[in-house]
Amino acid sequence: RCALLLVPATSCQDRGFLVIEAAPASPPMLATKDLTVIYSSGGRNFIALRDVSLSLAPGEVLGLVGPNGSGKTTFIRAITGVVRPAAGTVRIGAVDVSSLSQRELARQMAVVPQDPSLPPAFAALECVLMGRTPHLRLLQNESARDLEVARRAMVATDTWRFADRLLGELSGGERQRVIVARALAQETPILLLDEPTAHLDIGHQASVLRLVRDSARNDGKAVLAVVHDLTLAAQFCDRLVMLRAGSVAAQGSPAEVLEPTLLREVYSVAVDVFPHPVTGRPVVAPGD
Ligand code: ADP
Ligand code: MG
Known about the structure:
By secondary structure, the protein is an alpha/beta fold. It is 32% helix and 26% strand.
């Protein structure tokens, strides 16, 4: 039996009523509107991103997919201010990110770049501790808590066991996990990952994506991840956005986006898509 009571919720609670409130639509944490990026090189302009409007909510994992050169990295660079958009806006809540300082931005979003340039003579732990910099005052040393946050991030990414090894002496996959640890140690509400699984074996691919998915579920982080492997993307993302030549070709649930006709059109490849026997999520396999 249900009754709709148009009275203030607090007065109902005072009287011992059960109040069923419509869940407020959670505001998008990160939103781009008509984001356009133009590169100029060799005397000509190239539109790498055209009118891309996307939003990302707290607790959500959004997978960004699309062929090579479709603008995925450019999108992440435009969000983080590495490239200046020719048009459009990027907002965190109501705040335009162009009004934030680098330090303020670094407290809001952590990035795992596609090709990070890393100082080879730094130890893995030192690199992860760099994630704490936006939380420290100028010349302030890391506290015991900073060290503990870094340690936890390294344990979670299976990198703590080589915390004292130099970056230049780690394998590509080990270095990549150190960068993920650094981003987690930054403790930001938004996490942006550009092909975080590119150099990883299947075990570490799954564990890194599970880790970021859990940090969305448990800590309410908003996660945007570029994932090339469509089956992996489908498995770990709540929603997918597919770019084609700088524009959004499709967005929706993994099953909606990973549709064979669309994939053939966008990637120029014939694929079979079938449900995973356990999760029911789409598995994408190239045909013969
Ligand atoms: P993706 O990450 O999807 O593979 P990118 O965003 O890196 O694609 O690149 C999108 C397009 O923009 C590509 O065609 C690429 O060659 C071009 N591009 C990327 N960076 C630059 C740059 N600095 N100057 C000129 N063109 C660029
Ligand atoms: Mg890229």
